[in-house]
Amino acid sequence: MLEIQSVSKSFPGVQALRDVSFVVQTGEVHALVGENGAGKSTLMKLLSGVYPDYEGTIFFEGERLALRNPHDAQLRGIAIIHQELNLIPELTVAENIFLGSELHTAFGGLDVSRMQRETSLLLNRFRLAIPPDRPVKWLRVGEQQLAEVAKALALHARLLILDEPTSALSEAEVERLFAVIAGLKQQGVTMIYISHKLDEVFRIADRVTVLRDGEFIGTRLVSETNPQELIRMMVGRSLSDLFPKENVTPGDEVLRVEGLGLAPDRRQGSRSLHAISFSLRRGEIVGVAGLMGAGRTELLETLFGVYPRSRVSGRILVAGHEQQFVSPQTAIAAGLAFVTEDRKNQSLIVKLPVAENMTLAALQRFVSRGFIRLRAEAEAVQRSIRQLHIKTPSSTADVATLSGGNQQKVALAKCLLTQPRIFLLDEPTRGIDVGAKAEIYALVSHLAQEGAAVLMASSELPEIMAMCDRVLVLCEGELTAELSRAEATQERIMEAATARYQTQPRRSEPA
Amino acid sequence: MEKATPVQPTYPSDRSSRFWTIVLRFQSYFGLIAILILATIFSPLRDGRNIFLDPNNLLNIVRFASENGIIAIGMTLVILIGGIDLSVGAVLALCAVGAASFMMRSGFGTIPTVVLVVSLGALAGVINGLVTTRFNIQSFIVTLAMLSIARGVASLWSGGYAIPLAFGDGPDLAPPSFKALFAGSVSMGAINIPVQPFYFLAAGLIAAVLLKRTAFGRHVYAVGGNETAARLSGVNVTRVKTIVFTVSGLLAGVAALLHAALVNQGSHIDGSGYELNAIAAVVIGGTSLAGGVGTVVGSMVGAVILSILDNILGLRNIASEYQMILKGMLIVGAVLVQRQKR
Which of A214, A361, A393 is closest, CB to CB, to B234? Predict the structure, then answer.
């Protein structure tokens, strides 16, 4: 079906794929696993025509695949369901499904009723009771995802690529998706299932291929391997090397949050938080866990003064003093630092040099009589580059030319220069290679040892469990559990993360 | 099968790419040199001497570049933060009418007139900035509205006619010091240097130092490069934007002083299309309309390049229609060169 032969792809500053070869057979569910930054998404972007040039060859149904753009991929019968959904929120389900391949009546007008009928038929196959004329923005994330699968099938896709499809789904939605996948397999659709959740791989895949740091590590029959082997292949080292957690006796309380709430913004339909209370002490690393959309990011953003005061309720006390954070500026002044989950769009200004990014938040330190003391600034930048082992051609190179791990270190360096007492880290190791991950864990551990307090939100449970002294679990904007290091098992965390879903009646019967 | 080699970053650093990096970084200077050479070659000769290279002609070029150049400096800041200021030409008209009215009708002296006119320009800029930031409206729209409003106010103020400036001592006359200060010249040996370039250079120098050596300047690049990241880094985005629009309006006021003194009048139709000339100078100077990338010096060079183009085509008696066509091609060419940077 699909044969990938010695494929390599590099970007400025990073070799994303190096000499990768493997085969996907017709009608199988082929899992592709690996850590963040292993090259899974890059490979999928090659298959879906997002990156038209690469080295090596790909054969699809016996023919050499030369895609110039994503539309070419659609024509060849390859469909990809991205982690970020690609439906147009304002359009209806039917309009989205037939976008670009609309059905017409004999008179040339749009055949709306036939498109809606066919949409209903497709949705029925998934036991999805969504009216085809409903705008996509009103659907839940899981429903949107299935609508996208439906769209791919409407285009007669023979190869369906699912890129971490469950990261935003509740348990019930995951079950429904798996039922759909099983159904599609019976119909002969070949699927590549990208995930780093091994339990899912063992449930639905026939074979599994492991990538690490852009290289092919191996392909196994799911029936002939086990999670331990896959983890070893994925990580390439033992877990204790990766997570150098130091034991620290917690000191004084530096942050206390009482009844923190965030009202949703009606216009944007954004998420909200309800009555969250916890405290953070010097030397502690506290994890924030929860499913996607549980409010992890919103919690950190609220603490950092990102939202207008009118939406925020409750009290925030830093070292015993109540603070009213009206802007990130005020939060930074009180000793907070925030590393955002979206490095390129929120943390860094990628078209500016490394140096200017690093000192942006702490510029006032280098200003005397209105002018920046360039030498003092340059020395501080060089110190940070050495201290964090940042690999950059020079301090004047644009951040865009650095690899993901080094970009993240620049973001951390920027925070460190403001000399904060409290670190808010959102997905600090997302999309970076294992080596850089280990370095960032070591740095976070070191910061805690030196007396900083760290609040770390993450979607990766191994990271949370290995690094944190305590774990806060959020579900639908509420704090559903606070677990000590000993209590924080995968089961306990997941139970609390889905607590609100389980108490509600399920919206549709499992398939 | 199991390999653990870390990903090696690769950096483009071969010699030819470095050469092009340098050429592209200083694209506006290379453009300036190229157009100087071309102008020298195509210049008509008088008595065997190259008219283009005549010192007085060269000074004229800089003099005519100054008004547009000063506006382009303000425009550079606005474009650096990812905005645009379409109101500068209209604000210039409003300020020129104001200057003429203050001196001819109200009998104000030079200093009060200068202070009031520059403040008027700054006020228009403050309004642009506040409306853009408080109501979160694109600057394109806000300054388009200001363009219309400023011309409307200027026309009401002047009564729909140009207010002529007559210089001299006595009532109903404008102070001669105004003419000398903004349209005079400084004699240096055999040649008289017009004053306009001094304002141009001073404005450019101040803006360049502000951008490169102060926290405000860094914040301008940060806001234009990525507004969200800038805000999360503690930059007061609203304040930076408002100041930038204020500076743009203020510099339009300064340009209005030069304009009124040069043409001896203040009219509501002054400065028509100046916003487009300023944007052209900024773009030719290598500043990205996407924000975050560019320099004031580049825009100054861009203004001079446009002035040379006008000058040499004028010297060869080529119709102004061709000047417009060539200018258009130059703008697209500059952007194409810029795209190679990425």
Answer: A361
